Protein: APH domain-containing protein
Amino acid sequence: MALLHADDFAFATQQVLSDSAISALFTERLGLLPTRILASPSQGAFHKVYFVSLGEGSNSPWSGRDVVLRVARRTINKVKTENEMALLRVLRAAGIPVPEVVFFCADPDNPLKYEYNCLERISYPSLADTWPRLSPAQLDFVLDQSVDIFIKMWSIDVPRMHGSLRVDGTSGPVIEETMWTLPDITRYFHAAPYNLTAETFATLNPTESYTSWPAYICAFLRTYAHVVAIHPSVDWLRDLLPPLQRVITILATDSADMPWVRRLCDTPELLPRLFHRDFHFGNILADEAGSIKAVIDWEFAGIGPSLASRASPTRNILGYFRTLPASSRPPNTQHLIDTWEAAFLARLAERSPEIASQWARELDRATVLGVEGGSVYYCPPLFSPPFSNPNDMHANSLPGTERPTRVPASLPRDRRARGGGLGVRPKWKQRKGLIGMSW
Structure:
């Protein structure tokens, strides 16, 4: 929930594991000795990535093959790794191009001291590198495949709970990129001058899966209220606690007293579905003709409602295009921004009219949420992503949730409230809201 810190990227620049430790791991897990171990030239904030070439062995299907070893920085223990590994197996079974799981360990209390996973290596570049060289027909082919992937994901039978997926196929705890991670907690709670050493991952984040959208929202609001109540950096928000507690009480109340809460619990348009939540060209590997070979980076994929800001694959792709500097954009960038979403929806309607119709209904936030649900979705303003003017806050239309006082000008910008909706900017922005979530 904080801006990504420089130390978050430093992990992947270190020699996290020695070659001998990696060799011992593969010998133990596969009975194969690596012939080459190379740290990837491109590293992210959550893993140290190694490319490993395996030697020959008569009894292993991975004999002589290339794999990817990803060693996880300690951020969200167990849930993140297990969710991604579980999803990769489900997605692969559904015919969606994803890397095959070789092995993994979701418990950091192992001899290596880190969670890790090993995946099949897909030796193709990302579309982020190659799309400017694709012809219009090849880009249309990419769009066509994206529609196919969407339809297959829509049809996957996952637990209809707001949360993640466990390896046994049951619902797991909510996972969001905007949650307070272990380094965040050390940095922004335990350290001086805060000294809030009693805080843990469980006190600062929801740790369950949820049967309904109101229950999901309520769980996050409780954690936000807790942070506001204890943290000196947001003590100026404490006037909002009484109205916030009223909102929480309303969402958790008996449905007989609040019919609109029951409607939000029961409406099929808020049925949780599986979404990648970061489906953009940087996470799509393809050949020179635009044939998609793999979709990667599923660690923060999850199960939630379609109206979420990051659920739409086309909006993720368009968000990626919009981040490209105008001065260096390929000539066809604006054309894609202007046409891609409409073309996706039209193609979806041709392929599967029923899914297209249901998707359109689920995307209609105003109709799905109604006035009361919309009030919860958009307000109070502190539960939302970064925006340019922290003082431009929405008033909440629920009783007792009036417009808050103006943000003190002296407060550092990364400690001010975030406005807009319950969502976060795509990960390529490399920032997280102080108090915000993806759905």
Remarks:
- DSSP finds 14 helices and eleven strands in the chain.
- The longest helix spans residues 136-154.
- The first strand starts at residue 34 and ends at 39.
- The mean pLDDT is 85.
